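cache lookup: miss for this entity combination. No prior model stored, computing from scratch. Input as submitted by user K.M.:
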Amino acid sequence: MKAETPPRLWPADIYKSFKRLEIAQVAYVPDAGHTQLILDCGADKEMETVSLTTEQEGVAMLAGGWLGGKRGALLMQSSGAGNCVNMLSLAQECRFPMLMLITMRGEWGEFNPWQLTMGQGSGRILEACGCVVQRVDRAEEVGEVAFAAGQMAFSTNRPIAVLIGQRVIGFKDWSK
Amino acid sequence: MAKDRKGTLDRREVVKAVLDERGDALVVTGLGSSCYDAGVHDHLNTFYLWGAMGAAAMMGLGLALAQPGRRVVVITGDGEMLMGLGSLATIGAKQPSNLAIVVIDNELYAETGMQPTHTSRGVDLAGMAKAAGFTAAETVYTQQALESSIGAIYRTAGPVFFDVKVSDKRYPMSIRLRDGAHIKNRFRENLLGPKAFD
């Protein structure tokens, strides 16, 4: 199989949703799927972008940002969801709103077997930690789903995780 | 490495001395003893963690970025700081000038049975903070050094880091307030007014 080379309009759609949502803090552990979004947010003077050493730092950071009156989003790959587990008790116990956008690996055309544990487990793990989990598998719906998830997170004070399917992102060509 | 030099300062007196100068600073505490130390001097501008070990420094960063006009002071323990060491690198890279971290370092996990932490074995938290790019980072052993560090906690362009070595004396819990949503809401309402509930 050859890797797909999708036009990737959806990262810009997420960025537009962030602007509508007045997202002021963007914390991330990089993922290839979030490359363009990280660049766009980094170039925006109204957004503080923070590169993390581990995803759980982002959960705590966004809680601190919300304490100070700012809305934030956390970007990660599915392998990072498990790193957040105990830190999500902050969101659960304190009702901190949290918008998490998770680009999935380990679920569609994956070549790396090490990605499957979290790729298959992320949704259940996040649900067990009290997150509302929503999926999007169509590129043209990503921006809208991110916006709706943000609206709900900041209106209801709850952590919402949006899983962006690997099929949207495309997979690495391992066939050479 | 200062393995052989032990802390003698009293943790409650240290936290009182720091909080006496707080002015309009915003404070985040780590879980456990540092929460109870700060709880003796309860204030609407204090957010108490009762869990989420390793969160304190990063909550401080998020708050400092959201409120650049206010000083943000994190007061936490050595065990809590050790669980979030990566955050020293993240904060060093981001350079928030209004953030100070104060570690009340008794070299013990006091809540779980007084087991020694790595700081008892010579691990130097201030050295790590310095290497991560904090603008000031010191280990404080004496009353005199503590008094001179308090000015830096509130006024030196940050991020600044002070590891204050204290004795192993234990104190009872102080504050009873532990409902997380309430702690968050009262902090936000005091800071943001009606906008807290927009």
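stored under new cache key. Chain A has seven helices and six strands.
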